[in-house]
Design a protein that fits this description.
192 residues, mainly alpha, Heat Shock Protein 90, three-stranded mixed sheet, 4 helices, 59% helix
Length: 192
Amino acid sequence: MFHYVIKMGEIYEKRQQINLIEMKKEMLQKSLDETERAFKLWRNSIHDYKNHVLALTALADEGKIEEIKAYLSKENELIKRKIFYIKTGNSVVDTIINTKQTVAEEKGIEFIINVSIPRDCIVSGLDMANILGNLIDNAIEASEKEEKPYIDLQIMDESRLFIIRISNKYSKELSNNLNTTKIEKGISWNWS
């Protein structure tokens, strides 16, 4: 009987390790997909930049200084609205939030961020990537079919209590049962 209990414990531990490996594999694939998407955006930005340079050169050749100023002012406003990169001092958090913000905004979802990460954060980078990535992915998935969708992300440290709060628009009725639409069920994080 004792041998059976030990074997069951070993099997459970192996299953947890396999689940963790699968989760890491899934996260790496998502990261690769998001990096690919970011590269495409960058490539499109380079193309747009070349067109702007051509347009400005043509205006300069014609001596249209006021039109150049108006053009640059308009572009500056567009840049201010499009680009909001969060810098928390934690590169993992910055990467996850900025990448997910881009994905959300591509889907027309307003992304509100209020983040303060303590320098001595007790949550490891891998755990932070797992938690934030999963929370934001879920919020994006729930919001993308909503009218006037938004995601509000807040991270704070209050009295040595690390708090992550994320809310999003979701008009369907909420259930008390926490169900998943994912194929892999029952994956949990081990805090180190």
